[in-house]
Amino acid sequence: ARPPRVAARAVRLCHKGYAPETVSIHGDSSCIPSGAEGGGGVYENSVAPPISTSTTYLADVHVDGYVYGRDTAPTRTRCEKIISELEGGSAVLYSSGLAATFATLFHLNPKRIAIRGGYHGTHNVAKLFHEKLNAGIIDLDDPIGPGDVIWVETPRNPMCEVYDIEMYAQTASSKGAYLVVDATMAPPPLQFALRLGADIVVHSATKYYAGHSDALCGVAVARDPNVGQKLLSERSSLGSPPGNLESWLLLRSLRTLHIRVKRQTETAQKFAEWLDSKEGGRAHGVLKVYYPSLASHPSHEVASRQMKGGYGGVLSIELESERAAKSLPGVLNLMRDATSLGGVESLIEWRRKYDDQVPPELLRISVGLEDVNDLIADFKSALIKVK
């Protein structure tokens, strides 16, 4: 049987009451160790966080409990502190988003996993639990019972469906099950899954948290601090912490999380509105636009209520033909033809290449930090070329 749920009111809203953008910069201030490398002064006096590359620590010092890098490390701890404060839980970093997914399911050891669509990598992990541990795989809305896990990806890749976290949290709580939310496409300040009742929220931190397409990492954040401690202990046995360089790159990126995500969201919304307009994208072969801010999107009402900080930087479109969808990425000048999302550069991909469950006419777009008018002009020119 699962332990009692930690009440939502027990979740910390933010470090000392500060706003998320302030927490992203100062939330790790308590992690600066006294007597750290350089005799203490260098580490303590540095404004920008230095990288700690050591994998092992002196036995007669053990500053702040550091012994061996597989267990804990200073730069990693600072990242975990910030994300813990942002999300309102206990954060544990991993070597990738899928490592965080695997570790979460390993800890919960579900009888069944209720899941629908979304990232194909998550389904591959669920299949491993089915094949090796006989965990059942059921649809998201199938009846559940004690020990089951409801796995909700919201917004869901690639068509940006938004699921009601509070509703699934109530269902999980009433049945003795767990709710895990994959919020990769909606990090703070867009959405706060733990406040809405999730037991654990996971992110591919490679995406928005790291945000520069240069650091592979993941994170699981538990509502219950006891679960967070167990995840931390189990990570050591699983051998899946991120490296010191990746942790430092993530720490650097967390400082600008708020301004990056807000700008990407604003640009994505303007871009989606142009794509959906009769004078814009629809005049040049765009048949459908999937973005939650649009009133035509099936999840618009839920997203408006749940995603208080905005709708994110990812959207998808369908063109008139598979040929056009496959050709368009190659004639764009600004958007890079590559998978992934959340980076400062805009990316576009023919999603069918990686996921055979999506329409062949579909393109997924991750909006970066470029000027929206430049993106629109480039996209319009490309649409004309492939029509």
SSE arrangement:
Blueprint: H1 20-26, H2 41-45, H3 74-87, E1 90-94, H4 97-108, E2 112-114, H5 120-133, E3 136-138, E4 149-153, H6 165-175, E5 178-182, E6 200-203, E7 218-222, H7 225-238, H8 244-254, H9 257-276, E8 286-290, H10 300-306, E9 314-319, H11 322-331, E10 336-337, E11 347-350, E12 362-366, H12 372-386
Parallel strand pairs: 2-3, 2-4, 4-5, 5-6, 10-11
Antiparallel strand pairs: 1-7, 6-7, 8-9, 9-12, 11-12
GO molecular function: carbon-sulfur lyase activity; pyridoxal phosphate binding
Protein name: Cystathionine gamma-synthase
Modified residues (N6-(pyridoxal phosphate)lysine): 207
Please give a structural write-up.
With about 375 residues, this protein is α/β, with parallel strands linked by helices. It folds into two domains: about 10-255, 3-Layer(aba) Sandwich (Aspartate Aminotransferase, domain 2); about 255-385, Aspartate Aminotransferase, domain 1 (Alpha-Beta Complex). Helix content is about 35%, strand content about 15%. It has twelve helices and twelve strands. The chain has helices spanning about 20-25, 40-45, 75-85, 95-110, 120-135, 165-175, 225-240, 245-255, 255-275, 300-305, 320-330, 370-385, and strands spanning about 90-95, 110-115, 135-140, 150-155, 180, 200-205, 220, 285-290, 315-320, 335, 345-350, 360-365. A seven-stranded mixed sheet has the order 1-7-6-5-4-2-3, with helices on both faces. α1 (about 20-25) packs antiparallel against α3 (about 75-85), α3 (about 75-85) packs parallel to α8 and α11 (about 320-330) packs across α12.
